[in-house]
Amino acid sequence: MSTGEPHPYQPPAGPAPTTGEDRNWAMGAHLSAIVGAWIFLGFIGPLVVLLVQGERSQFVRAHTVEALNFNLSVLAYSLVGWVLTFVLIGIPVLVALGILWLVCTILAVVKASNGEPYRYPVTIRLVH
């Protein structure tokens, strides 16, 4: 990708021409991660939304790809944190990761509700 071009699945700058249904699906992609996180499968909800609605709307696809990538990244970071618990540094890492995950997910839901793009921090972008 050359410099100056937007991310391939990001909505154009300015007010996004989204429908209420698009915003609801985008919010659902982020919120479904909260439900799935209870069993360490927070990426399943965004993956389902991507498969069901990802081709219908660029806005929904952008949000679901972000949610999917972020939750896969958090899963990987959590596994590292669990390994690090044997040397006791993993406990604060897991606590900080949990707080970061919750705050970022809430921010993403608010942005999706407003029809705005959102990029999660510290995300390994596996899905494009």
Order of helices and strands: HHHH
Q: What oligomeric state do the depicted chains represent?
A: single chain
Give the fraction of residues assigned to helices: 55-70%
Give the amount of beta strand, in percent: under 5%
Principal-axes shape call: elongated
What's the overall average pLDDT, rounded? 83
Q: Could you give a short account of the major beta sheet? A: none
Tell me the distance between the termini. Answer: 12 Å
Got a strand count?
0
Can you count the helices? 4
What's the number of structural domains? 1
Radius of gyration, in Å, reads 15 Å
Q: What is the SS-derived class? A: mainly alpha
Q: Pick out the low-confidence regions.
A: none
Walk me through this protein's architecture.
This protein has helices at 20-37, 44-53, 58-84, 90-113. It is built from 4 helices and no strands. Helix 1 (20-37) runs antiparallel to helix 2 (44-53), helix 1 (20-37) packs antiparallel against helix 4 and helix 3 runs antiparallel to helix 4. The chain has one domain (20-113). The model has no long low-confidence stretch (mean pLDDT 83). It starts with 19 loop residues before the first helix and ends in a 15-residue tail after the last helix. With 128 residues, the chain is an all-alpha fold.
How are the secondary structure elements laid out?
Elements lengths: L19 H18 L6 H10 L4 H27 L5 H24 L15
Helix pairs in contact: 1-2, 1-3, 1-4, 2-3, 3-4
